[in-house]
Write a structure and sequence with these properties.
single chain, globular, membrane, 83% helix, transmembrane helix, transmembrane
Length: 129
C-alpha cells in the first residue's frame, strides 16, 4: 500500500472516540476563546500578566480530555500521545518562562492547571466508560 493510499484510508475511516474527544475539546476551547474575544471577556481571557497565565491553561484541555478517553478505551497509543502532549506543553511553558513566572508570582494558576488536568482526565474516563 502506497503512502497516499494509507493516508487516504486513514482519513476516510470512521473516527475513534479518542479522535472525537480530541477534536471536540479543541473546538470547544476555540469557541470559548472566540466568544471571549468577541465579548472582550476578562472572565475567559483574563487581563495583564495573569491573563497570560490563564490563557496558557487552555491548551491543556484537549490532551487531558483525550487522555481520559484513551484510558477508558484501553488505547495505549492514545494514552501515550496525550501524556506526551501534556508533558511537552508543560516543558514548553517552562522553557519560555511562563511556568516559572506563574509559580513565582501567581501560584494559583499552575495549581489550578494541575487540578484541572486531573479533574478532566478523571471525568473523561468516567464519562467514556
Amino acid at each position: 500500500m502506497s503512502v497516499v493510499e494509507r493516508v487516504r484510508a486513514r482519513l476516510t475511516r470512521e473516527q475513534t472516540r479518542y479522535e472525537r474527544a480530541w477534536l471536540t475539546s479543541i473546538n470547544t476551547v476555540g469557541f470559548l476563546v472566540v466568544v471571549g474575544i468577541l465579548l472582550d471577556s476578562k472572565l475567559l481571557l483574563g487581563a495583564g500578566q495573569t491573563g497570560i497565565f490563564q490563557r496558557a491553561l487552555y491548551p491543556f484541555v484537549p490532551p487531558a480530555v483525550s487522555l481520559g478517553v484513551a484510558i477508558a478505551d484501553g488505547n495505549d497509543r492514545g494514552t501515550l500521545l496525550s501524556a506526551v502532549a501534556l508533558v511537552g506543553y508543560t516543558l514548553v511553558l517552562g522553557v519560555v518562562g511562563t511556568l516559572g513566572t506563574a509559580v513565582a508570582t501567581a501560584p494559583v494558576y499552575p495549581v489550578a492547571g494541575l487540578v484541572g488536568v486531573g479533574t478532566l482526565v478523571v471525568v473523561a474516563t468516567l464519562v467514556a466508560r
